[in-house]
Design goal:
Elements (H helix, E strand, L loop, with lengths): L3 E2 L1 H16 L7 H23 L3 H30 L8 H37 L2 H15 L4 H20 L3 E2 L15
Antiparallel strand pairs: 1-2
Keywords: Membrane, Transmembrane, Transmembrane helix
InterPro entries: DUF996 (IPR010397)
Organism: Thermococcus indicus
């Protein structure tokens, strides 16, 4: 494999990870900032995937984003659809309301775990490609954070995973690959 210069993808990924992290703490426009960050990460992973000929980081991260967005749309549709089907003046029974809440909670947990599974695979692929240990650590933290997200500790672990992604992009080598070996020079034969 020839040497691939990834300095722009490295910076794009780092800034995307920073924006996606701080977007959660900014009121009003935080979701837009996070969206810009996720797009920058996707573009960085696409550039890296194309440069090294390995689509795993981009595809897995994209699948995770699609899984999360699709799952949120399904949850909102179920919630709105349930209340739209109830005729005016009727009220859901207490047991139906509790059942709906439990179903939506289980769906939400499955959404978090499914999206985390694909993110974990993306960061493990980045570790294999770049050799940057922080991507492997990010994969571990994402996975355990998603599994323990039911309790508040999981959200802290997901935050730690995002910090490791920032560090991983920062420490990632700007160039990947090997210089092609020079062709052996033909020796001149003097008679």
């Amino acid at each position: 494999m020839a040497v691939a210069n990834l300095s722009s993808e490295k910076n794009m990924g780092m800034w995307g990870a920073i924006l996606s992290l701080i977007g959660g703490f900014i009121p009003y426009i935080g979701s837009v900032v996070s969206l810009i960050g996720f797009i920058l990460i996707l573009l960085a992973l696409k550039g890296i995937s194309d440069a090294v000929g390995d689509e795993r980081p981009f595809k897995n991260y994209l699948y995770g984003v699609i899984f999360a967005v699709g799952g949120l749309i399904v949850i909102v549709a179920l919630l709105l659809g349930t209340f739209a089907l109830v005729p005016a003046g009727w009220h859901l029974s207490e047991s139906a309301g509790i059942g709906l809440a439990i179903f939506l909670f289980i769906l939400f947990v499955a959404l978090i775990i499914g999206a985390a599974y694909f993110q974990k695979r993306a960061w493990l692929a980045m570790y294999e490609i770049t050799g940057t240990r922080e991507f492997k650590d990010a994969a571990t933290w994402v996975w355990w954070g998603a599994l323990t997200a039911v309790i508040i500790v999981g959200l802290l672990l997901l935050l730690i995973a995002r910090v490791f992604v920032i560090i991983g992009f920062n420490k990632m080598p700007a160039e990947l690959g090997e210089e092609p070996a020079p062709a052996p020079a033909e020796e001149e034969v003097i008679w």
